[in-house]
Amino acid sequence: MGKVVAIHSFRGGTGKSNISANLGFCLARRGLKVAIIDSDIVSPGIHAIFGFEPDAPRHTLNSFLAGNATIKEIAHPIDMPEVAAAGGALYLIPSSLELSEISHILRNGYNVSLLIKAFKDLVSQLTLDFLLIDTHPGINEETLLAIAVADCLIVVLRLDKQDYQGTGITLEVSRKLGTRRLLLVNNVTADHDPREVTTSVEDAFGASVIGVLPHAPALMALGSSACICQKEPDQPFAAAIDGVAGRLIDVEGGALQ
Ligand SMILES: Nc1ncnc2c1ncn2[C@@H]1O[C@H](COP(=O)(O)OP(=O)(O)O)[C@@H](O)[C@H]1O
Ligand SMILES: [Mg+2]
Question: Quick check: 208 pLDDT over 50?
Fold first, then answer.
């Protein structure tokens, strides 16, 4: 049975969408079947990294929640030669960028059991090894659902006091929900030793660190217009994300058995 991994941070702009996209690519490049769902209905972003034009007509997570599309129709295959060569598969389930559809959900809400159904049906109908959920920051209804449904929660944080305090809150929620918790430290400058960062973050939160990702000017330069692990695989950030993919497979190895 495939594993559901929620990628979350208490604050916005920590790198969740770029991490989700690149982690998905690295897992698929290892021959796995992976889907990434943009559950950030209010401020979607991950479509840009895979080159989806915002105004092209396509089914989105919103279409499914409105009862207008099936699971297979909202899962868009991402065509990447590295993934095909490895025998893997990568899908993106985008959220709508239509203002009317976003405001409809904000105004009227949606049937939350349908969102849980979407997560479960994606894993079974696409026979996934991994479903990655790119979440909206903070603690809201989708986030709680994503954490509750997930086998594993990856909390992204930076070495910043506001991130630290928020991370404590997210971890407390996931502890109560019984989801496996892993920490991923992003945007770490070269003056920090990654091993020391790992030790101090693990001591502070009592949870394991799955990776320490460097501050990456090359990622900033791409400006969320591409997947750095595909475009510039030799960049330290890309290599670090691939390491996280390997460790995730080790931790959630049941997906591959
Ligand atoms: N390690 C990093 N080094 C430099 N820039 C980064 C790093 N991680 C993320 N960024 C930049 O931060 C911005 C926000 O990233 P994004 O993935 O959209 O975050 P989120 O989804 O958490 O809001 C993007 O411009 C991205 O390029
Ligand atoms: Mg995002």
Answer: yes
- Residues in contact with ligand 1 by the CB-under-6-Å rule are 9, 12-18, 45, 186-187, 213, 215-216, 219-220, 223-224, 237
- Per the prediction, the chain carries an average pLDDT of 92
Domain over 3-256 is classified CATH 1.10.10.10: no
What's the pLDDT tens digit per position in 51-86?
A: 988 777 889 999 999 889 999 999 999 999 999 999
- The Å distance, Cα 6 to ligand 1 centre, comes to 17
Whole-model pTM above 0.90? Answer: yes
Report phi then psi at 82, rounded to 5.
-65, -35
